[in-house]
Amino acid sequence: MITLLDYGAGNVRSVINAIEKLGERITVAKTGRDILDAEKLVFPGVGNFGNMMRILRQKQFVEPLVDYLSSGRPFLGICVGMQALFAGSDEAPDERGLCILPGRVKRFDVALAVPHIGWNGISAQQPTDLFYGLQGDEKFYFVHSYHVVADDPAVTLTTTDYGVPFVSAIQKDNIQATQFHPEKSGASGLTVLENFIRKDRRLAIPGKCPSQTRLAKRIIACLDVRANDRGDLVVTKGDQYDVREDGNVRNLGKPVELAGRYFEEGADEVTFLNITGFRDFPLEDMPMIQVLKETSRNVFVPLTIGGGIRDFTDKNGRTYTALQVAAEYFRSGADKVSIGSDAVDVVEAVLKSGQQTGKSAIEQISHVYGNQAVVISIDPRRVYVDSPDQTPHATIETAIPGPQGQRYCWFQCTVKGGREGRDVDAVTLARTCEQLGAGEILLNCIDRDGTNTGFDIELINAVKQAVSIPVIASSGAGCEAHFAEVFEHTDVESALAAGIFHRREVLISAVKAYLKGKVEIRL
Length: 523
Ligand code: 1PR
Fold this sequence. Notes:
This protein is of the alpha/beta class and 523 residues long. The protein contains 16 helices and 29 strands.
């Protein structure tokens, strides 16, 4: 029996699902006594270090946890659950950690996008039972802005490189912990969890660990979901956001089934966009939450969900905050939430007042769940001008002239699935959202969506150069070569596609086979 320490601030459902999938029973610790009585304890930490330590103290979990750690019984910390073992973190300098191991947690100070999001390798430094059955060249899913700096090198189990080498797993006696998420790392991650559960494996150092690891470019499958005219929840796909064909909503499959297929085919991440979320409030749209719950039972890669994340007052006058909506999504198995229309509203308000209120969905969700949990989905469309002085917006000189031969354009943000254009450009939006606390940009493009003509490289470069958080290129992929092109001509960390995957025109495995040897990918 595994005991899970859940302090209530993130997606622990995935850990529960992964452990149950491996045939083990799991119980959630509700009291300090439950922690003390555990046979094997798993502590997945998510979000902000300070928030985690505060809740652990409020719940009076700190003392039992420290006692458990010195009991000699097996312990597996995950992500912030590993960071908690050290003295403290730059993320919350006033909060004391558990002080089990000497060292601190520091923010990445590298010339790369932060958070470090995606699949990276490990380089094992000592024998362990945790990696039994692995070759050593597998990749695992990371998502964090802070990393452990251990004072005692003997506790380092693995290192990973991201601008600098950092400690990506530790091991000391009964204590094992990983900065990466085994529960989100596909088959390799499940192997790590199984080794922890069984605890009968022999110690070894996997033979094929690289001396230097590399972050893989991610290939993401996106499922636009909505109810069709008969009320069935379907995966649909638009042409430049128009999802109707002969008057009917296109139906390309069932959300849970398709997500499962993409996991099997090697997707590095799966994104669900509830594309009518702007008018149907998600907490009344339970099927979408059900989709997430069912998907996360069998899909062990990160899941993002977007659509309708905003404050909302229902017909009975009851008010829900965006944070509550996000919380429900996280509880149901989401790792990240994606905010579209609401981000445009917030940025407009910030630009107008010159002030951040601290109350926006972006600020509140990132404060509780961490920046890495907040993705901004941008739906821009080109607006052509003859010269940059015709608009106050960030323009580019374009190689794709407008209908009247215009050589400049800006990228207008839209809301409500492209139905309404706003007076803010994608570059300003992305930059402002980063300041507000967003951890990643999902950059769609209405002009390219569903066209199969390739990604809009100009748009992507304009936005990518304006931010220091990771960017997902989206819209327009029509063949394997388009993925190589976007990685060659831009610095994006990942590329997303929908139509070609849904229609099986190109399989995710084929994209990866094509990219192999050209860019770093997870095979
Ligand atoms: O505004 O917070 O409620 O979120 C709504 C979300 O739904 C937004 O993220 C918005 O992008 C999305 N959305 C709304 N309407 C549509 C539509 O298509 N009518 N889909 C829509 C946006 C774009 C991508 C698509 C890529 C790749 N979809 O999801 O998957 O363009 O497609 P391709 O590879 O086939 O070219 P809120």
